[in-house]
Amino acid sequence: MQVIETLAEGLKREIKVVIPADEMKSRLDERLADAKDKVRLNGFRPGKVPAAHLKKVYGKSIMAELVNDLIRQKPSEILTGRGEKSATQPSIAMTEDEAEADKILNGDADLEFTLTYEVIPAIELKSNDSIKVTREVVEVSEDEVNEQILKVAESARSYETKKGKAAEGDRVTMNYLGKVDGVAFDGGAAEDAELVLGSGRFIPGFEDQLVGVKAGDEKTITVTFPADYPAANLAGKEAAFDITVKEVAAAAAVEINDELASKLGLESAEKLKEIVRGQIESQYSNVTRQKVKRQILDQLDEMYKFDTPAGLVDAEFDNIWRQINTDLAQSGKTFADEDTTEEEAREEYRKLAERRVRLGLVLSEIGEKANVEVTEEEMQRALFQQLQQFPGQQKEILDFFRNTPGASASLRAPIFEEKVIDKLLGEISVTDKTVSKEELLADDAEEATETKKKAPAKKKAAPKKKAAEGDAE
Q1: Tens digit of pLDDT for each residue in 279-297?
Q2: pTM for the complete prediction?
Q3: Could you report how far apart the first and last alpha carbons of the chain are, in Å?
Q4: Which CATH number, 3.10.50.40, 3.30.465.10, 1.20.1050.10, 2.40.160.60, labels domain 159-251?
């Protein structure tokens, strides 16, 4: 077999592979000999089929299998022999001429094919001694814990039916049917819908018009959907909702005690307090973690400068660009609304894609040299989290990860990255700094804005499902 490099330009490689016809014939003879004792042909006893007849009957089909096997196996062998890693799946090309292909299958011509790929650049790791980060820490106060517990209590508070008119803070139970231009629209109807007046959960103006209603009242409410409403068919439209009030209920007094904890499935108010504090600390820790990670990545980006494989950058850019256009479509905005142009946005996101690919390669090299591994238990936990996010679609998700080549990499990659970050945190200089929650979150918002550059803003969906009781936000 001959392996001839025909292109070595930057990270691009092109390799011509030639397997002589004699070698192909020899491989074919080996397979025919192996098949001789297995095939069954009329008129011949098992194992007694003449080689010439076997070749006549099965030669071309076995040679075709041989060609496919070689084209599947040889690229990885060649790359290993050259000490190279391909950034993406190598492109393989061979003759499309039917006459030439027929000669190969008959063993009368050399098998030739070409590999085209980009190599992952060699990365010489540098000392991490120069990396210094500040880890912002927030001390959770008793007042903040109590404030959050109060929100939990309010979400779990009970209501008692009242006579008379609904006031701010009362809960109205109703049936409603929404129409635009006299036509009902999807998602605009509900029965036994509960709404606490003043919660701001429905379209602006909706709740205000329910103040003063009584059980049994029928009323038509007219509101206008916000111009940036996610559903384009409703954005900016005036809608009329036919309302039938079924109950008006007043909120019971909020009391933070063991009874409230029991209602939430906990043994005591003290346990509720402990859990809420843990939730708040976890939320702040996540923000702190992301800010520290951003500092590390920024410094690694400055330390490592090298050409990135165009194929990886293209794939990353395509993912980013697809999300950007999805966000624009959902928000009903254009690049002009975001004070940019499509060309400028493409340039910015291309740079972001290059940065992500470069840092991904650096982190991969650091992790590989440090023998960082993702365990099967960690993969199973990540898969379980995916299943929890899509209730009712568990089978489809499992089938996707089992049957889609490379799908498991989407689970492995973020776990691997976080483990590499953990390793780096054990080697670099980390200085803790106590800050207020306002400082932590304000800085985080600024960094998010800078990261997104001029990304279209995602808009919250405006109306309308009942809030989950007991959620601590």
Answers
A1: 999 999 999 999 999 999 9
A2: 0.72
A3: 65
A4: 3.10.50.40
